[in-house]
Write a structure and sequence with these properties.
By secondary structure, the chain is mostly helical. Helices cover 82% and strands 0% of the residues.
Length: 118
């Protein structure tokens, strides 16, 4: 069994996963910023419907891009877990614990589910 540092494929997948996680966070912040801009512009300028529609369409495009990033992030997470399992360093891959450590969105979803059940 090779130590993690020697597994190039695992390291490559982990770096890509981290990049997608950062991209998803950036896109989420960007969407919130654009929504605030749309609302502020509409309020201050009394702008026409076409400009507002254009900005709202852009927000829709960014939301679609964020969805794609989250799907890719999930696929990469699965690949990282498979690579980790192949290396034999995860005793129980069906456990939710490793995913919660690596995936902040999963941790947030899990917390939201617990709060909803209470």
């Amino acid at each position: 069994m090779k130590p993690r540092g020697e597994n190039v494929e695992y390291d490559r997948l982990r770096v890509r996963y981290d990049e997608l996680a950062a991209s998803a966070s950036f896109m989420s912040d960007r969407i919130a910023s654009l929504e605030a801009e749309v609302n502020e512009q509409a309020r201050l300028n009394g702008m026409g419907g076409s400009r507002e529609a254009k900005l709202l369409a852009r927000v829709g495009q960014l939301e679609a891009a964020l969805t794609k990033i989250r799907i890719l992030k999930g696929a990469l997470f699965d690949a990282v877990m498979i690579a980790t399992e192949a290396m034999g360093s995860v005793a129980e891959t069906s456990s939710r614990f490793p995913r919660a450590m690596l995936d902040p969105d999963f941790k947030a979803e899990t917390a939201a589910q617990r709060e909803g059940k209470s």
